[in-house]
Amino acid sequence: MSEKMAEVLRYVESNGDAALERLCDLLRIPSISTQKHHSADCRKAAGWLADELRGLGFTASLREVSWAEPGHPMVVGHDEANEEKLQSGQTHVLFYGHYDVQPTDPEVLWNTDPFKPCLKETDDGRKVIVARGASDDKGQVMTFIEACRAWKAVHGELPVAVSFLLEGEEESGGENLLPFLKANLEELKADVALICDTAMPDRKTPAITTSLRGTVAEEIELVAACQDLHSGMYGNAAANPAFLLCQIISGLRDEKGRVTLPGFYDGVTEPDEQVRAQWRALYPDDAALLEGVGLSQAAGERGFSAIEQTWCRPSFEVNGLTGGYQDDGFKTIIPARASAKLSFRLVPGQDPLKIREAFRAYVRAALPEDVDAVFTSHGASPGFAVNGESPFLLATLEALSSEWGQRAVMTGCGGSIPVAEEIREALGMDALMVGFAQADDRIHSPNEQYGLDSFFHGIRSWVRILAALAR
Amino acid sequence: MSEKMAEVLRYVESNGDAALERLCDLLRIPSISTQKHHSADCRKAAGWLADELRGLGFTASLREVSWAEPGHPMVVGHDEANEEKLQSGQTHVLFYGHYDVQPTDPEVLWNTDPFKPCLKETDDGRKVIVARGASDDKGQVMTFIEACRAWKAVHGELPVAVSFLLEGEEESGGENLLPFLKANLEELKADVALICDTAMPDRKTPAITTSLRGTVAEEIELVAACQDLHSGMYGNAAANPAFLLCQIISGLRDEKGRVTLPGFYDGVTEPDEQVRAQWRALYPDDAALLEGVGLSQAAGERGFSAIEQTWCRPSFEVNGLTGGYQDDGFKTIIPARASAKLSFRLVPGQDPLKIREAFRAYVRAALPEDVDAVFTSHGASPGFAVNGESPFLLATLEALSSEWGQRAVMTGCGGSIPVAEEIREALGMDALMVGFAQADDRIHSPNEQYGLDSFFHGIRSWVRILAALAR
């Protein structure tokens, strides 16, 4: 390790409290992007980040986006030294993260206010910070910003040219990202993108996520009678949209757990046996993935382990169901309408738009004359796999291995980070997904947390990666 | 028509405004029995009715019930002249109605406050009173009370001995009724019960409902993971209780619309061809029942018309569905739990307790190891058919035919009025269901209404029936 980098790592050690305080400032902003009444909070989080970047010597600005709803601004920043570095042939990295967070319902299950971050020691003695967005993705975004701060503080400059793109709609469709990338191609193009929005396979093993699942997220509302009906007077004779919704949803998986839409598995390839073996070492049985959340066995497509089902197999899930009477007691009605939020997770090779159309055609074909369906798209993005020959992959794996004292591995991820695929599509460059979250961080759930080990090892990891990517 | 009765009918004509004002007073009390925070309102409605009865020369009292929740009081009243009439061999009738009402959600669909009754003229020129409970059942209860008032006002006495039983839990399981009847057998036993909680087949044809469907109402909650999960990280591998709920519900009807529970149709008899013909005259096609609510075709069991499906065939309905994210936008979770309110409508011959057990066994058999089910019963009552040889049936049909100028018919009803069966079981007497509601009264729905024609012809009908039942 160079003495230069060692000095930066020592700076990180000595200035941890201030870094944590800055993260808490960001976590206090309730930037829930899918809820309209939090629009001003999203803008506030964007402004806070732009101010941070300016304080580090970046030119930074909020960039309006209006191709689609909700239209929360992008934060774009460039190190003032970038031009000089690029002229001398230095590597240019674009860092991507998102400042928006998921909703906080059900609020009653939170032990503390989701937007009042607090430090807690878990049962296994780990120190964590609890807040909505702590792990997904504010804590992770701040690991990279703090690494930049440390390099600048100690040496007055970064090892490479660095630009930032911080999004505010990752949790609500993110439909503005691709047009924004395309409209700002020259400004955003770099040698490689770094994305910090993924998890480690366990507490000690660093990883680069080399595959992601895409998503087709759909909301359907079925509408039948012009009003809720008395289920005695009309029961049997009147179309029941809640029952029909259950039939439609139930028909989307067969008895082997496979999705039934025609053409759904077109383009899907079986996982490589060597990769499966590596994953089996990390997750020897289904419980290794599931027991932390109170489950024991893989529920989806037969013939694949739990980790394979999430990392490399497409799926269908019900995310929300609504219809009829939901309060205390009982109400004998046939609801006039019923709706569901549904999503398909896609692997590389599947075409999201074709699958969306196949889904809608399937629903339409199931509708009797008296029932109408209204469809709302909540996003469609393909699966993604990193180019194994990326010149930046090895350097990053090595930097991670050094920081954590354990060989970094390549893993899959069942979630969607459409930006990785969109960066490749729009900007023609690779995206390396390096993240420090843990499986038990409860992202999207009540009492979301981020470990201080994740946070500080994360900052140190980026300090090393920035050095490793320099030419 | 006797001059004595004609005088009473003229009194009804001349005192309509005051009768309507009394109905409005009762409608202003929000006696929603299934919602705990309305318990005091239920008691208030009971007290209001007891006061009315006392004003008419009845001994009346609130009777506590505590065999089951929610425990709203019964109102019991006896005409002070009963003993004298019984000694002289006069007929004794027990009138049953209920003072509780359904919840009012969704409130936004009401054009006026559900508990501020208002008079309205409908598009077809009919005057109606709009309020929750206007038709089901406060308006109908008041037709009988006003008929008694008119007899007493004009002649100082009723033609027959009259007792009242007014319930406060008809819309919330009504589990206290049967034990209350059994515990008060001697006090409540009469020659015949009169129940006013049913509808007419059209605007002009009076009817006695001679069959009713019973109900098995069940709530199930499926519980899987210990928290909502990220649907990317866990999707496919984690059990999804919302999807499983849809599978379970979907499996409860086959492709012919028949309920699939083993033994479900045991004891069910096909309807008599003569009865079917009478019903076909009233409802020549499915649209005749359904078009008023925006539907066109019978959705349930194939081989039966819409009216047969509701009047004489058992059914299964989804009354409410809840699971996962239900707010604006999208949340990529696998819900930890999902629940449904479900009901079976039963015809005479089916055993409600056997059907409840068959349902629960079916659900339990569908559960994988990682999912638990919690069951809550919201009532179980058998179907009902009137004894065709009741000595009071013909007299009542004739009185109705005279009042409406059209021959009264015997109809079925798809709804449940467990009291009819329970009165037969506990008190060993027949119950005649005579009601003046209309199909478009929107009972259980927003903007419930009761026509002034229903109300005043209803009062006059009871004036005649009381005379017709006298020996």
User: What structural class do helix, strand and pairing data of chain A support?
Assistant: alpha+beta
State the helicity of chain A in percent bands.
25-40%
CATH architecture of the largest domain in chain A: 3-Layer(aba) Sandwich
Strand content of chain A: 15-25%
CATH topology of the largest domain in chain A: Aminopeptidase
Largest sheet entry of chain A: 9 strands, mixed
Total helical segments of chain A: 16
CATH class of the largest domain in chain A: Alpha Beta
Number of strands of chain A: 18
| CATH homologous superfamily assignment of the largest domain in chain A | Zn peptidases
- Report the span from N to C terminus of chain A: 16 Å
Q: Describe the global form of chain A.
A: globular
Describe this structure in words.
- The structure is a homodimer of 471-residue chains.
- Chain A is an alpha+beta fold and 471 residues long.
- Chain A folds into two domains: 3-212 and 384-469, Aminopeptidase, CATH 3.40.630.10; 214-268 and 314-381, Alpha-Beta Plaits, CATH 3.30.70.360.
- Helix content of chain A is 36%, strand content 22%.
- In chain A, the strands form four sheets. In chain A, strands 1, 2, 3, 6, 7, 8, 15, 16 and 17 form a nine-stranded mixed beta sheet that branches. Chain A has a four-stranded antiparallel beta sheet with strand order 11-13-9-14, covered by helices on one side. In chain A, strands 4-5-18 form a three-stranded antiparallel beta sheet.
- In chain A, strand 4 (118-121) and strand 5 (127-130) form a beta hairpin.
- The longest helix of chain A has 22 residues, at 134-155.
- Chain A starts with a helix and ends with a helix.
- At the A-B interface, strand 9, strand 10, helix 8, helix 9 and helix 11 of A face strand 9, strand 10, helix 8, helix 9 and helix 11 of B.
